[in-house]
Amino acid sequence: EAQRKEIAAIVSNFVTDIKTQNPEANIVSVGDFNDYQFTDALEIHEGEHMTNMINKVEDGDRYTYLFQGNSQVLDHILVSNNLAEATEIDILHINADFTDMAGRASDHDPVMVKLDLAAEDTEEPGEPEEPGNPEEPTPITPEKEYDFTNLEAKELVLNDKSVSITLDANSKIKNGFEFTGEYAEFHGDGFKNTEVIINPEKAGSIIDFKGTEMSKVIIEGKNVSQIRGAENVQKFQYKKGANEEDILFINTIEEEPEAPVNNPPALTTPFENQKVNAGESIELTLTDYFSDADGDKLTFTSTKGEIDSDTLTLKLDEGSHIVAVTATDGTESITETFSVTVEAVEAEIPQADYYSSAIGKEGDALKDSLHEIIDDHHQLSYSEVWDALKVTDEDPSNSNNVILLYSGESRSKNKNGGMVGDWNREHTWAKSHGNFGTSKGPGTDIHHLRPTDVQVNSSRGNLDFDNGGSSVKNCADCKRDGDSFEAPDEVKGDVARMLFYMAVRYEEGDRVDLELNDRVNNGSNPFHGKISVLLEWHEQDPVSEWEINRNNKIQEFQGNRNPFIDNPAWAEDIWGEAL
């Protein structure tokens, strides 16, 4: 998912660069977006410059694929906003409508668009007007007048055809004022600190600011033909195909004013190259590095890490990385890069005394030694598991809640049960794989029992673990298909290490002998798969502080530990040679 978002951001930034250089550039993005359909990546790719034409298709006709009655859109055509209104789209259902509802998946239906890329006809230019003496504008009398005094509102939208709006200095409109009609004139001190959006529904619209002081005006679309009295507008911004070159500016003294200038963001402090140890995070407040001379609010993107508001967090794999950070004010942008070197740290073996008899071994000998270390533990009853999970999986930010496996949701401890909205006890090693049920030992071992949303638990069922599938209810990042379940990235390693533990803890002579294999559809056999995928997940999602704390708490209840949380390298030492 992170890689899809990174790729989408690179494409979006590429489109932004093109539009910055040429706002009238024609851009089309076409493809089978498949995995993007169910993630935020498609929205990132669309950004503020592109329109997804598939959304213009009527709801009942909006599908390109069918599988067992489940219709989805997997194929998309995005066009730059300046092409959207003149683009026609159609989906030809020559596959989906002729597929057996209970049969295999259909081939994809063709998605077709008609684009008009021809330049518009232009008239021969006439004699140039004398500078400072444009044609006198035709006076317009508004049909309605609005005089707002002491108005307090979250937002204000007017769609009257022709209006005069007066806003006094005591009025406050938090999210700004939007006009969608054909003619408007503006008066009053209230617009000094109010953002104004002009988004007319019809072409040829005229806006007269009457010399009123305006902090910021956003023009959206191509329907504004003339702007009058704009000499006191501090800043214009053009979006969704709007272009200042297509608008005639005439001010109150009948001269064409200079178009307001937007200053791009600037780098105020250069980034320093970073060096950290593996497992460590870097946090950078991006407003310490970028600023905007116009006071515009900046938004940020990065080729690595995660951004929350203006904070970039980097937790990268071992090796060398180049990080590119882009700051934009919505019109202009600037990109700066720096390097991050993540160095390996020779880890000490945690709990060295506890694992002393296993140190230095590998393969079956290591597996046997770890079994002897962890097998003699206190076994809880199935009812005692409820109370134990309320301790081991407690939300560190809310002691009244537990954190649910898979979805990551924080839910009340008292919502344990079997109804929709409750959480129940998920056997990560499916209890039917070996038919141990809820018996003491494997059925009540809280090293692999986790609180989970009832419906997510039901969706997982007793499936083996593998990559692929479609999202499930209450866990968008969970995936399942007919023979496997994929955990979200944030807990892939957790799942793998719980299954590693079970395969070592329960051996011949125990209630059941559990083993890992590289298959799915293991059914009631005492096997769980797929080991190759679990090893990948183990590497992809390293041990977290949460797992370490949970391991410590479980030792207080059961008296044993999960070796693969304490010493992650042991998983490869035991199963790596088998693949």
* Helix content class: 10-25%
Task: Output mean pLDDT.
Answer: 89
Radius of gyration: 31 Å
Please tally the β strands and state the result.
40
Can you tell me the overall shape? elongated
Helix run count: 11
Integer tally of domains: 4
Largest sheet: 6 strands, parallel
Strand content: 25-35%
What is the spatial order of strands in the main beta sheet?
8-11-14-16-18-20
Uncertain runs: 119-134, 253-257
Keywords: Hydrolase, Nuclease
Region (Disordered): 120-143
Biased composition (Acidic residues): 120-133
InterPro entries: Endo/exonu/phosph_ase_sf (IPR036691), Endonuclease-I (IPR007346), His-Me_finger_sf (IPR044925), Ig-like_fold (IPR013783)
Explained architecture:
It contains eleven helices and 40 strands. It folds into four domains: about 1-115, no CATH class; about 145-250, no CATH class; about 265-345, Sandwich (Immunoglobulin-like); about 365-579, no CATH class. Helix 7 packs across helix 8 (about 530-540). The protein has a six-stranded parallel sheet with strand order 8-11-14-16-18-20, with no helix packed on it. It has a five-stranded parallel sheet with strand order 10-13-15-17-19, with no helix packed on it. The chain has about 575 residues and is α/β, with parallel strands linked by helices. About 20% of the residues lie in helices and about 30% in strands. The protein starts with a helix and ends with a helix.
